[in-house]
Amino acid sequence: MAGAWWSWIAAAVIAVALGAFPYTYYYSRDDVAAFPSIQQILLAGIGVGYGGSNNKTEPLRPCFPALFGFGSSMADTGNYATIYPSRTRASGQSYFAKPSNRFSDGRLLIDFWAQALNVPLLSPYLRVIGADFARGVNFACTGSTARQDSIWGSYPLSVQLDQFKAFKQASLDAGLQGSLPSKEAFEKGLYIIAIGGNDLIQEYFHKNLTVEAAQQYVPEVSQAIVRVVEELYKEGARTILVEDVYPQGCTPNILSQAAILNENLDAAGCSKPYNDNVKLHNKLLKEAILNLNTKLKDPSIIFVDTYSVRYEIIANASLYGTFELIFLLP
């Protein structure tokens, strides 16, 4: 099973082409035709089959009736843009051919999940016009943190959890079958959490802590995520994917704004101390999730390692195509 998960993560992250890195746009081709087996690989990882030949695929019945998203800009499909329309950058040209309300020029990993599950791309929770909530909803918002103190006027993961609880109750009370998720959809749906990076960024650039001083706060981040996972479990969620944090020491916002000595750069040009903090977070998060799977009854809580794939792409970029890096720092 581990090999299957690695395959879909690798395929999806390569196709995303690192477009979801905060503060940064990687202008690149977002074209499934360039990765002809991406849908099959994604579906193999979650147990959904595709049939057909000559690259003409017919999706079989997905094993998840709905998809629910939580997180930051790594998964935000429009909540931040709804709150602050004037702050939204006109990104989206490499796939959507119009502003997509994402902090990415292409699709996010959660978009690939939706397409692999044969469900519509997730509508943001705050959207009023044109929203489609029948097969899921997205609560993720750019700037969100796992802990209580969010940045950029956004809201933390705990608020997203409250929004989910309110949405679930309202959906069940309304009883509008076909327009809102059913009780079965909430119970058997796939839940995805992609958050944690902003918590570290906040320590560096908003609280002005050194990378060494910020390390003491790293355990708080994974603890906050785990508390929300436990709350989702109490709400009936049983299949929950929790993504790790990307290699922040490789991103332009770290490398351009932080004082980094050459001896602290690795062979790929990434800051080792900043990546070490991310690795610590990912390690603690993985351990906590493993513990939850033994503690709770019949859960399927999955730690998703995207760090390794993203770092591989950065360290060996020539193997994955040519990327033109465009800085768009706030």
Highlighted features:
disordered N terminus, 39% helix, disordered C terminus, Rossmann fold, single chain, globular, alpha/beta, two-stranded antiparallel ribbon, 5-stranded parallel sheet
Question: How is this structure best described in words?
Answer:
- With 330 residues, the chain is α/β, with parallel strands linked by helices.
- The protein has twelve helices and nine strands.
- It has helices at residues 2-16, 38-46, 79-83, 109-116, 157-174, 183-188, 197-205, 211-214, 218-234, 252-257, 272-295, 307-315; strands spanning 24-27, 50-53, 56-59, 67-71, 136-138, 190-194, 239-243, 300-304, 324-327.
- The relative contact order is 0.14.
Mean pLDDT level: 80
CATH class: Alpha Beta
Low-confidence stretches: 1-8, 13-60, 326-330
Helix content: 25-40%
- Gap from first CA to last CA: 41 Å
Largest sheet: 5 strands, parallel
Overall body shape? globular
Structural class category:
alpha/beta
For the biggest β-sheet, the strand order reads: 5-4-6-7-8
CATH architectural category? 3-Layer(aba) Sandwich
Beta-strand content: 5-15%
CATH superfamily: SGNH hydrolase
The helix/strand series, from N terminus to C terminus, equals: HEHEEEHHEHHEHHHEHHEHE
What is the fold's blueprint, element by element?
Layout: H1 2-16, E1 24-27, H2 38-46, E2 50-53, E3 56-59, E4 67-71, H3 79-83, H4 109-116, E5 136-138, H5 157-174, H6 183-188, E6 190-194, H7 197-205, H8 211-214, H9 218-234, E7 239-243, H10 252-257, H11 272-295, E8 300-304, H12 307-315, E9 324-327
